[in-house]
Write a structure and sequence with these properties.
UDP N-Acetylglucosamine Acyltransferase, domain 1; 7-stranded parallel sheet; 24 strands
Length: 378
């Protein structure tokens, strides 16, 4: 692959010794756009046939990568700023109706898969970006986190992705939806602030309906293919956590670029597909019931269950169930012969000691009568 340095684009005030590199400018088309380097050892990688329209790609620090894959003509409108040791990647076939605004900071990453569609006014950022601390511990509470969008994700007008947001393939984020660090499954529709799921088991297709007639609409009433239905396939699945770890472990911009190129060569349909299934094991079932995050295995899960919530089908992990307490037996009525026999047996079986015999022959003194004692009422 031929290597192009940034001075080919006639940049000024950025000498070659800064180590910044640009790949792919031979086929780049720029319309009212700019590329800025304010740091060193950064890489801008542009696949063949890129068109940047009303875009700004800005490196504000060092050792970062911006990778723009082949896009639909005249539809790549990006306002991207990256800081130290960060990565911005946008995959093939992106469609941007308006400018997509992205800020990648504090050594985090933004990764956008293939065939993503963006409406007007979408924002993505990995930081708040100002610091927030606990008033009790004085420790920071708002650490920055990477943001990931899978393949074929539709971001509605004004959608906002905040630090830690993860959206798996095939989903929709509604207009003005805010994704604050949530992990959203595939083929779902999400809306609100913060977003909540409003539909599941759906898929979308990017044909625009604006010019539809009744006849055209009738033709599109069904979509007979499963092209945009995603399934969790363990042999294909690449978790966003693993992707983030690989990019963060790369110590140079060139290492980050190598990994991104590897991802481009090894794509599968369901690489970012995640569908929530039946939780496995006792802890999973209880946590699904209580909507709890994973905790230590020593935690007593039963103590947080509402009354009657434990599933009778769940095994008790070898602990024996306590035996129910025996009910006291009801006293049966006895006849006169049984009572006389018991009294006789008691008298003959007890032998009194001398002290007991004296105590029996000595009359006990009557207790003094209380003053002003009233007679018992009959």
């Amino acid at each position: 692959m031929k290597q192009f340095f940034y001075d080919v684009l006639d940049f000024q005030n950025h000498p070659l010794e800064d180590g910044n590199l640009v790949f792919g400018v031979d086929s780049l088309t720029m319309i009212d756009s700019q590329i800025i380097f304010n740091g060193s050892n950064n890489i801008l990688f542009l696949e063949k046939g890129i068109t940047l329209s009303h875009s700004s790609l800005s490196f504000e620090a060092n050792n970062s990568v911006i990778y723009v894959a082949c896009n639909k003509p005249l539809y790549q409108r990006l306002n991207v700023r990256v800081y130290n040791n960060s990565t911005f990647f946008i995959g093939n076939g992106a469609h941007t109706s308006g400018v997509v605004n992205v800020i990648v900071s504090e050594e985090k990453n933004v990764f956008i898969g293939d065939e993503n569609m963006f409406a007007f006014g979408v924002w993505i950022r990995t930081a708040d970006p100002h610091l927030i601390y606990s008033a009790k511990t004085h420790e920071r509470t708002n650490a920055s986190k990477s943001v990931f969008l899978g393949d074929h994700v539709w971001s509605g007008q004004g959608a906002v992705y905040l630090k830690g947001a993860q959206v798996h393939s095939g989903s929709i984020i509604g207009a003005m939806g805010v994704v604050p660090g949530k992990h959203l499954e595939s083929n779902g529709s999400w809306a609100g602030n913060p977003v909540r799921q409003i539909a599941s088991d759906i898929f979308w297709e990017d044909t625009c309906v604006n010019s539809f007639t009744k006849e055209t609409a009738a033709e599109y009433n069904t979509y007979p293919q499963d092209s945009f239905i995603y399934k969790t396939v363990p042999t294909e699945y690449l978790s966003f956590e693993q992707l983030d770890a690989e990019l963060s472990a790369a110590t140079t911009a060139k290492d980050k670029l190598k990994y991104l190129q590897y991802l481009q060569r090894t794509k599968t349909k369901n690489r970012f597909a995640m569908r929530t299934g039946e939780p496995q094991g006792l802890g999973g079932k209880l946590r699904a019931l209580l909507n709890l995050a994973p905790k230590s295995p020593k935690e007593n899960l039963y103590s947080k269950l509402p009354p009657g919530a434990v599933d009778a089908s769940v095994p008790s992990r070898g602990k024996k169930k306590p035996k129910p307490a025996k009910k006291p037996e009801e006293e049966q009525p006895r006849d006169a012969a049984e009572e006389n026999a018991d009294a006789l047996e008691k008298e003959t079986s007890q032998e009194k000691t001398p002290v007991e015999a004296v105590a029996e022959t000595t009359p006990a003194a009557d207790p003094p009568a209380p003053e002003d004692a009233e007679p018992d009422e009959e």
